[in-house]
Amino acid sequence: MLVAERDLEYLDGVHAPLGPVLEEMLKTGRSEGVPIVNPAAGRLLRVLVTALAPKRVLEIGTAIGFSTLWMASALPAGGRIDTIDPDRTRTDRARRYWLRAGVTDRVRVINEPALRVLPRLAPGIEFAFIDALKPEYAAYLDALLPKMAPGGMITVDNVLWSGRIAAGEHDENTDALRAFNETFLHHEQLEATVLPVGDGFGIGVVRPHG
Ligand SMILES: C[S@@+](CC[C@H](N)C(=O)[O-])C[C@H]1O[C@@H](n2cnc3c(N)ncnc32)[C@H](O)[C@@H]1O
Prior knowledge:
This protein is of the alpha/beta class. It is 40% helix and 20% strand.
């Protein structure tokens, strides 16, 4: 049984307000059709980053910086986020929002395709968030795993894909996400699960080596 719409509305109302910058980003994302995380996924990112206090965070898929800001606002002192998105127009807008929210000095943008960037990143990433091209999710995971710190966490958005996977639909994105979930949830290097939060939120903890 699905969580009822009224429960989700209740939860949106009972949480603290987003604050002016996140609120404006959410409105902009929705009105312009920029795909950004559901606020419930944003809150979850913020709770997880608060709990883990990672010094190194990697995000794949920045857009206008909404999910980045949820994470950046929870970083410990000295914590940094590298966020990857080839779309410079979007990340320039993201920077302006981060400036207003006071987090620009914690974020580095890399304007290149993720699969080109990941192989050259130094290992030791403690927290990662995947939210870019769905057909590339499996390749992001493969490239990310050797760069993760033992015990690090990999999170993933859209793994329920608005119900299309469970409904048995077939298209490039749906099939890719279905295959990704199989890999993610059975991966020998991960302790993983999917929460029905937002559009489906995957969480995998990297098992310590050996
Ligand atoms: C779903 S949006 C990201 C939303 C953002 N995480 C948020 O919730 O605020 C996906 C982004 O991935 C970016 N993208 C497209 N191709 C990419 C690639 N090869 N590597 C990294 N990002 C890519 C797109 O430009 C787009 O802005």
